[in-house]
Amino acid sequence: ITQIIEFVFVFTQKIFKEAGISIFAVSGVISVLCLPIYMVAEHWQQIQSKIEKDLKPGIDKIKSAYKGDKQYMILSTFYRQNHYHPIHAMRSTFGVLFQIPFFIAAYLYLSHLQSLKGAAFLFIKDLGAPDALLDIGILKLNLLPILMTLINLVSSMFYTKGLNQKDKIRLYAMAAVFLVLLYDSPSGLVVYWTMNNIFSLIKNIYSKSKFCHKKIILYMIITSACFAFSVFLVTIFRGDKALKTTLSFVFAIIGILPWVLIYLKSLLRKMRQSLESSNLFPLFIFSFGTLFVIAGIFIPSMLIVSSPQEFSYIDNYTTPLFFIFYTTMKAAGFFIFWPLCLYFLFNRHIKIMLSIFAFVAAIYSLLNVFLFPGYYGLISIELIFSAGVSSSTAETLTCLALFVALLVLTFLFVKQNTFFKLISMLALFSITVFSTYNIISINKAYNNQSDFHYDHDNDKKITKIEPVFNLSKTGRNIVVIMLDRGHSAFVPYILQELPQLKDAYSGFTYYPNTVSFNGYTRVGAPPIFGGYDYTPEGMAKRDNVASVIKHNEALLMMPRIFSEAGFAVTVTDPPYPNYSFKEDLRIYNDYPSVHACITDSVYTDMWIKENKFPFQSVSETIKRNLFIYSIFKIMPPPIRRGIYYKGDWLTPDSGQRIRLMLDAYSVLDYLPKLTGIEEKNKDTALIMVNNTTHENALLQAPEYRPASSVTNYGTSKYKMEPAYHVNAASLLRLGQWLQFLKDNNVYDNTRIIIVADHGSQENYVNDIGLPFALDNLNPLLFVKDFNAKGTLKTDNTFMTNADVPSIALQDIIDNPVNPFTNEAINMEAKKEPLYIAISGSVHRGDSKETKFALKANQDYYVKDNIFDAKNWTKAADMQ
């Protein structure tokens, strides 16, 4: 219930930017959801009142004639003869009891909601505090709770017409209880409960009215209001397009729903005889069981099984199975507990409709999951999509037509309910089998990882930052820094906004005309460390060697060469060693002179403490968002964008997305403290990977630092793009580190290469008419040689990130050779067109693979200027 309240509140606030309107929306949605239950409770109330009225003369006669045990025995017999038990009186209190969990959920959520504090609405100055609207000297009275109680009393007067005095007293007493409970509560919570009472008053007035065709008139009002609101959102209201589209789509469906219900009732009335004799409970339970398994187990397990290591050892939770268990419990409440409560509350007619609805919902959800998977790029551990979420008009029309077709077919063949039961049972069985397989695979991967797990609990105990690598004042220093998803196309705009960087990067050359061989780290990174032997085409040539071995060779090549040349080598956070997420450093065990370590996430807690930065932990973020992710996947594409909402998943916590960025950002911010300076005449090599540019987040300009609430987005053309912010932040923090090197006289004797494995999955800048995002294949490349001087300059020479080893080893090793392949390390490959793996099919691998799945009909060759579409040729046309 709390999840529903939060979802509605945040969704409405994102659109209208008013907390008061969001409270109205929450009240309206909860009231509508509770309406069927209130109707049942009212029906039971009427039955109870009639029974008590009919039995009262007999009860009074027995009580006047008998006393003690004899009275009890005769009353018991009298009740039994009339098929009544005193416990049935509890039915009259069901309407009140039903409000309790909703009241508790609203109280827990709204009374502690940070966004209400200080928020004004109409005549209320602060929704996060008692209203104190009446000020009499030193006495301040809260008027909203009194107004709420008066409305509650008026509503109770309408509701209790014709009921006995006992029922009236009970309702008036409940109104007094709520007055006491809510008198000193935040006014936002009182507004919520006041709106509930207003809704209840309208409902009671409507139910007691006796004008003709009132139901049809009500349906017409609902439909007209819904369609008018949808038109207003789409044509007039200025708000976020994704949210407006989602909300207008939902209201359009609500507007149609009453008439669909009328049609269904008439259809079921015609089929009453055949359906009344059928047991539809199995259809109901199989269908909701399918929804439960899909949302609670299958979708979360499908996500986690793709990379179990990422979901392991998070905060206090070691196994990723915990997150599946947590989501399963939420899904059990959503798709098992509440549906069963509804099913057993209603009569046979409603049970039939619920069973049919359950079947349609289950099948439609399955179709959405498998027919509309959506391409959203890579997904981070905090469930942030690299490519965002969007849907085409064709997708919208297709999924809508599919829903209508499914609905029509279901009701045309509803008499064949045995067939439907079989389909729902098969769906439940199949999805359970797949889910079980995923869980077994996840557990196996977790157990395999535990042997080399890097203990992050010890990281949290770090109280002092000490150097993890050293640079020499007199020897030669080689530094290679890979910024994952560093976006080259943003650099001119960053330099325009932050011109001081041109001096900070003195001696550097920026190469904008640089290409990556793939848009994903697993394939885009190996060429950085191993050169052209480890491009997709180079990997594919050695199809007798497992892909994971070739990947490890790439990561080891430069450290091995430098260490064998007498350099002190440090490697931090290598990408996917042993095709593991990040923690398996065993590949360096055979090279004792190479120091390998993890820095990502090690200093986050210290940075957060020092900067007093508020945020939600990763585990809490996953626990909250994983179930919403499941709902996202079972929904049709037009609604998904509103649920995702730029990666916020409609959370009121503005800091939840920033944790992963902080894991890497803290390393860059602490880089001067992590760098030791030695007087020894010792050559050093540092090969570092950092993910700040990979984890998109809006930051506080002009310094582009993390902030719980961003108020200055900068002046760039791309100031509202999180990808721009993290790239600007990375260049600024590295610029500060460069100044540290200058101040310690180790800048001139240091060769520095800053490079990316690929760019952003979205085409922010370079749209030249190619059928793929050129930005994705345009990685950052900055190079500073020994003793280089002058402000940052730009060179449009054709480069690739596979040139890094040649640049790093230049004049260090004569005629360098890859020790694993015995091939020369150089840039000769650029004389011919280069094979670029556009397809994403090669970005994942496992230890058994030996071949890269290159796709000539999707991949391209490129030469010279990558910004000229004529220089790109489809691979199939070159063969």
Give an account of the 3D structure.
The chain is of the alpha/beta class and 879 residues long. It is 53% helix and 7% strand. It is built from 30 helices and 17 strands. It has an 8-stranded mixed beta sheet, sandwiched between helices. A 3-stranded antiparallel beta sheet has the order 15-16-17. Helix 2 packs across helix 7 (187-208) and helix 8 packs antiparallel against helix 9. The two termini are 60 Å apart. Mean pLDDT is 83; it is low at 456-460 and 843-847.
Class by alpha and beta content: alpha/beta
Tally the helices: what do you get? Answer: 30
Instruction: Estimate percent helicity.
Output: 40-55%
Percent strand equals 5-15%
The major beta sheet can be summarized as:
8 strands, mixed
Mean pLDDT over all positions: 83
Using DSSP, what is the number of strands?
A: 17
Strand order of the largest sheet: 8-7-10-4-11-12-5-13
- Uncertain ranges: 456-460, 843-847
CA radius of gyration: 33 Å
Distance between the termini: 60 Å
